[in-house]
Amino acid sequence: MAEVASVAPTKAAPAPVKAVKAGKKTATKHKKAEPSVSDFIVKAVSASKERSGVSLATLKKALAAGSYDVEKNNCCINTAVKSLVSKETLLQTKGLGASGSFKLNKKVAEAKDKAAKKTAPKPKKPAVKKAAPKKAPAKKPTTKKAATKSLKKAKKPAAKKAATKSPRK
Q1: What is the pTM of this model?
Q2: Which residues are the signal sequence here (predicted)?
């Protein structure tokens, strides 16, 4: 134990702990190409023609039929249903929370369809570019006197334009 106490830490020891390996890259999250759970739920509810809405159990059966792992993602389904109800995309006809029956809110669905139609990009025709005629470079006056004369000439027509305005009656 005396040996441990006699060894003093050096300043170089903490440096390797702080250093990050050059070969490692930070993990980046990529968005999945498949649609989210809420998209699946909205499609399943819109496909249903029940007047009173779709129960949660029926909704989960529809998702399982659409090759979605319901048992593994049960919590995700419940939170997605709750968020869709809070966003008023779904209307809850019976029950509280994630339980009960749900149907699609027609007002929100129509508003989203109209917004999607307005924001849809229209195909643009490529603009035909015409070659602009090349202008000859303007000649600069050689002396200062000539430059001041040209400025005075340019100011005179502007003054005449202001004088020609008719007074208000």
Answers
A1: 0.48
A2: none
